Amino acid sequence: MKITLIIAGQEIRDGFRNRWIVALTLVLAIFALSLTLLGSAPGGSVGASPLLVTVVSLSSLTVLLLPLIGLMLSYDAVVGEVERGTLLLLLSYPVARWQVMTGKFLGHTAILAFSTIIGYGIAGGVAAFSGDGVDQEAWMAFATMIGSSVVLGCSFLAIGYLISTCVRERATAGGIAIGIWLLFVLIYDMALLGLLVSQGEAIGGGIFQALLLANPTDVYRLFNLGGFDNIAALSGSIGMMADVKLPIWVLGGVQLAWVVVPFCIAGLLFKKKEI
User: Fold this and answer.
1) Which of 62, 109, 143, 232 is the most exposed place for a label (fewest CB within 10 A)?
2) What is the phi/psi pair of residue 228, to 5°?
3) Which CA distances in Å does 25 have to 30, 115, 119?
4) How many domains does the chain have?
5) Phi, psi (degrees; rounded to nearest 5) at 204
């Protein structure tokens, strides 16, 4: 465990040295503050809590940004080290491959979590103090949104590790990562909507739910925008997902599975990978 934490600490130090942490925190804070300030006017006009409006706005921002950030952090985690020759040097020491993989993943998770908590926390503080008062449910929804946002980012971190383990060139990993982001964030829901329009009667509720759970960004939306009644009302009942009624623990478990399964597959492949 000590070796794993040392490798994680090195990834965090590299993040500070390369200004990754500062840049990610600033990007998330700027976008979050912009959405918070722009969303405060409609929230006040309808009597909604500014913090709840912020949760809805940041949930939409998260679906676009956190997957991209997760993939940017991880797409060259393995193949990049192989090309530079540093991975072969590291494995020449008495360190197991699973320790290398786990340590790097924990380091990237810490970078992602720090940037998300600080960036979104600033926006949440501004939204809370700009209103007349924020109730406990609003704070719970906001904290849940931040936690699930980190988990969403980690799921794409894990997918990025899987990509990085499977390919032999860094450029190939980058291209696949962009394709994965486009698929899950943009293309998948448009294709699903087209399928519902053309074959709506043939698709049962169970199949539709399974298709939604097959996309980590849709699971995130269901978890946050459908988990609290006030947020569901503000978000317009999340469109075509309005009829999906899954327990919150099921959605949370699926979100975690999107982290564990890709990372475990990447670990198994890395164990047999020729360096």
Assistant:
1) 143
2) -125, 135
3) 8, 4, 5
4) 1
5) -80, 170
Q: How far, in Å, CA of 69 to CA of 75, rounded?
A: 10
Rounded-to-integer distance, Cα 32 and Cα 142, Å: 13
The distance in angstroms from the start CA to the end CA of the chain is 23
Would you state the structure tokens that stand for residue 50, as one six-digit string? Answer: 């500014």
DSSP per-residue string spanning 70-90: HHHHHTTTTHHHHHHTHHHHH
Q: What domain range is 92 assigned to?
A: 2-272
Torsion of the alpha carbons at 24, 222, 218 and 262, rounded to the nearest 10: 70
Cβ within 8 Å of residue 236, ≥6 positions away: none
pLDDT in tens, the chain (275 residues): 788 999 899 888 888 887 878 888 898 888 888 877 775 554 444 455 677 778 888 888 899 999 999 999 999 999 988 888 888 888 888 888 899 999 999 999 999 999 999 999 888 888 777 765 566 777 888 888 999 999 999 999 999 999 999 998 899 999 999 999 999 999 998 888 888 777 666 666 677 788 888 999 999 988 887 655 556 555 554 555 555 677 888 888 999 999 999 999 999 999 888 77
Angle between helices 216-225 and 248-272 (to 10 degrees): 150
166: how many CB neighbours lie within 10 A of its CB? 17
Count other C-beta atoms under 10 Å from residue 183's C-beta: 12
Helix-then-strand count for the chain, H and E: 13, 0
